[in-house]
Amino acid sequence: MTNEYCLSPMTIDEIKNLVGTTFISSFQKEMDSILKPLQKHIEKGRPLSLGKEIWEYAISDSIVNGEWCGAGSNIVDVKIGNDIGIDVKSISISGNKTNSSSMYQTFYGETKKHFDNNNTENLWDLFVNGWYNKTTSIKNYYLMAIIRERETLDCSLCCFKLNPNIPVVYSNNLRKLNKKTMKVDGIVSDEYAHMVVYVSKTRLEISFKKKLWESKNHTLKIYKNPWSTQSNLIKFFISDPVSA
Questions:
Q1: Where are the domains of the chain?
Q2: d(Cα 49, Cα 205) in Å, to the nearest integer?
Q3: Cα–Cα distance measured from residue 68 to residue 105, given in angstroms and rounded to the nearest whole number
């Protein structure tokens, strides 16, 4: 059951209530205005690179009273008033899951030391508790995933809400360690997402699974790229965020 996790997927009605009734039409216009100057390159099938901030801008400008706040070490990228913070992830579909996106980052030296010593409890404290302490400092924290089709750039929206009454507690059965990664369980249902700590990136990252974006209960279609056709499919390469 989704309510057993501190991050649970929101229903379509909950997402609409968060972003507002004009969000989809506004987001379509925002993205069209960003891509229109690139139409010539799109038609030629050239790869494009859109930084993560572009997506954050489009989200903030599509929500009534939305304000971009993604600079620096903020855990959220968009805020609505003083109480709502949204952590925006823009990822593309790769097979049965998406590529991964940063949730939280810390220092390399400590990370490598704990991996070398197989110290999963300290790794959990650094990354999972570090992430959780930041998210719970926001009165109402939401995780927002813009899930893109690689070939068309058509986008769907999925969101998760934080359940602050469900604690994040370390347990041996909630992590799996190898030399390069530590898989983290118990934060979000494994049906919908996958969370991993990477020693090389010193980051806690999340990727999303096909069951999420194919769900009629949890996924909202928000963008249709007017310049892609079945005879002229395109691939967009979006830069990976360096830090949370």
A1: 2-223
A2: 21
A3: 21
The 10s digit of each residue's pLDDT in 94-132 is 899 999 999 999 877 889 999 999 999 999 999 999 999
- Reported as a pLDDT band with limits 50, 70 and 90, residue 135 is very high
pTM score of the predicted model: 0.91
User: For residues 5 and 2, what is the distance between their CA atoms, to the nearest angstrom?
Assistant: 6
Largest CA distance in the chain: 53
CA dihedral 20, 24, 26, 31 (to 10 degrees): 140
